[in-house]
Amino acid sequence: MTKQEQYIILGVGAALVITTAIVIAKRKAKPNINMSVFDSPDRRGSGNCMDKRLISMLQQLAKKAKYPIFQKINSGARTAYWNSKVGGVSNSAHKMPKCMAVDISTPTKAIRNKIVVMAKLIGFKRIGVGRTFVHLDVDPSKSQNVAWGYPAGTKPPINPFR
């Protein structure tokens, strides 16, 4: 083996060690999320279906808003039965297998408005605004850059898209 071949092998080995270290560091940096907070009340483990992009955006939102998003999930994944029981629309982004929506409890107007504004800045393009909760979803099959109020059909108390 020539000196040049030895240097190439050494370089490739060093690159692999560095790449492995970066992957391990990134895995450790991600907060461990208890996916059961997204479970439909009638199906244990159903929260595991949640969209990975949605989860990533929620992590960003929690960090930027300094709000415990993952402890404030009112609704995540829903079975068809549960969606019907809570009055969800038939094509809800919450429904399994889509699992592209969450409702987050916001006990005050100030917290609600902060979550809405920050969610838009992070890239959420579908935001439902209730009196005590915020709905966020990443369903690309639905209208984008929209906000709505609850009950359905009412104007949102805050609209970040205007």
3D architecture notes:
The protein is of the alpha+beta class and 162 residues long. The protein has four helices and five strands; from the N terminus they run ααβαβαβββ. Strands 1-2-4-3-5 form a five-stranded mixed beta sheet, covered by helices on one side. β3 (126-129) and β4 (133-137) form a beta hairpin. α2 packs across α4. The radius of gyration is 21 Å and the shape is globular. Residues 26-30 have low confidence and may be disordered.
Give the amount of beta strand, in percent.
5-15%
Secondary-structure element order, N to C: HHEHEHEEE
Low-confidence stretches: 26-30
Rounded average pLDDT: 89
- Helix fraction? 25-40%
Please tell me what the overall shape is: globular
Question: Which key features would you list for this structure?
Answer:
162 residues; alpha+beta; five-stranded mixed β-sheet; 4 helices; 13% strand
